[in-house]
Amino acid sequence: MNSKNTICLWYDGDAVDAANFYAETFPDSAVHAIHRAPGNYPDGKEGDVLTVEFTVVGIACLGLNGGPHFKHSEAFSFLIATDDQAETDRLWNAIVSNGGQESECGWCKDRWGLSWQIAPRVLTDAVFGTDRAAAKRAFDAMMTMKKIDIATIERAVRDRD
User: Distance (Å, rounded) from C-alpha 113 to C-alpha 135?
Assistant: First the structure.
């Protein structure tokens, strides 16, 4: 591992599956190395896959096959900025259709329980822009959505009360 800071994600024996899915789904993502346990450990045996080095959109990650003791929560999520509706749809649908779950406001979970925010730049630009009235309209529109609909956000920004 060359990165000084690496995100370590806990999995219950399926870190390789997760890393492969991320590498196939997200740009600038890859599986770099698979490491096997040099000895027995509480939830595995010598020779089992212990860790997987991978990147998700350029971010260094280590998948640890630590067992069933800890689960992912919304306290950690990947925030993926998308450039258009096609990219938003592709990423959201890939996660949800692969055993994941829809949530609210651009959030979804993958089948391993890891949370993702699929956030079009149009949305974040609007919500954090200088026009506070447009920001409120965009925010209010987002609050009614699961997957973000860019056309609806753009209409909310444009339409004045």
Answer: 31
Is residue 49 a contact partner of residue 16, using CB atoms and an 8 Å limit? yes
Q: How far apart are CA 61 and CA 72, in angstroms?
A: 15
Q: What angle do CA 59, 74, 41 make, to 5 degrees?
A: 70
Report the alpha-carbon distance of residue 88 to residue 149 in Å, rounded.
9
**Which is nearest to 135 in space by CA: 151, 157, 117?**
157
Residues of the chain with CATH 3.10.180.10: 7-65, 77-158
pLDDT digits (tens, 9 = 90+) for 34-45: 999 999 999 899
CATH architecture of the domain with residue range 77-158: Roll (3.10)
At the second CATH level, the architecture of 7-65 is Roll (3.10)
CB 118 within 8 A of CB 73: no
What number is the average pLDDT over the span 116-133?
A: 96
35 phi and psi, to 5 degrees? -115, 135
